[in-house]
Amino acid sequence: MISAGIVKLHEDDKYSLPYEKPLLKRWGHAASVLLVFNEMFPQLEKVMAEDGPKGYGYYDSFLRWMDTYRTTEIFQEWNKIHLIPILEFKQGTEFTLLDIGCGCGQHIREAAKLYPNCMFYGIDSDTPSIDRAIKEQGDQKNIIYHHMRGEQLSQEWKEKFDFVLMNEVLHVASDVDGILKEAKRVLKPDGYGITYDPPVSSDPQKQANNSTAQLFFPFGLFTCLPACLSDPSGEGRGVGWGYEHKKQKIEEYGFRVIKIGQKDTEAVQAGIIFQK
Ligand SMILES: C[S@@+](CC[C@H](N)C(=O)[O-])C[C@H]1O[C@@H](n2cnc3c(N)ncnc32)[C@H](O)[C@@H]1O
User: Fold this and answer.
1) 162 Cβ closer than 6 Å to some ligand 1 atom
2) pTM of the full predicted structure?
3) C-alpha span between 119 and 98 (Å, rounded)
4) Which of 23, 27, 133, 244 could make an S-S bridge to 202, C-beta 3.0–4.6 Å?
């Protein structure tokens, strides 16, 4: 443990863990996902069989694990780093944002608190998630939730939104083409699309021995792929779809990928920001 840098040995022969307590707690909780995967294993085995089902929906125990892992503080921090810098492009405007695949609404709840004069719409194809989002909305009047599929958005939403957010959605969605087509229809001509997915390359050569791919692939195997393949359309990409394929697909729909900060848009990263 000392040689691996997990435990620190001090000059007085005392030992300590060289990390802050919150980080250790987070890692401890992250490791507990192995117990959840263990519970899912028999179902995964069935899916692997040639004559077995194509996939399965989200497991309750996995969703509960996610809930504990992704705290309000984590969402606030995520918004500060990834979302707010993009929303600031429309500084001074009373913007409208659509969160496609909003899940239980944790993200937009936090973002909507920061912009009380702006409107936030959250949609998700999963009924229990939307029901929970509505239940936890409290008295936040600037959020509207709908149970809706990203590839079948309201016909009334033509060029309505300044921002369309898809966080951890495209790689789990069964109809990426349909969602991008709809995102284009509902975005204002000067609006921004914001997508985040695991920062993994599409190239298997680059996935090999890559620690980010090693971290995300088990989640893809146990949850993302089975969840999207369980959809009646039966399509699904998963984590291995990767950055390059996602960027190519976004550009195929006539969007222009824009550079944010110093990072070259050719480099593998989690976020892709684009305009019509
Ligand atoms: C990994 S979760 C991410 C949830 C949320 N964006 C977050 O970051 O916490 C993916 C979500 O996308 C939703 N989803 C998948 N396909 C969808 C579709 N075609 N239309 C709308 N929502 C979809 C799922 O139901 C799920 O809630």
Assistant:
1) no
2) 0.90
3) 9
4) 244
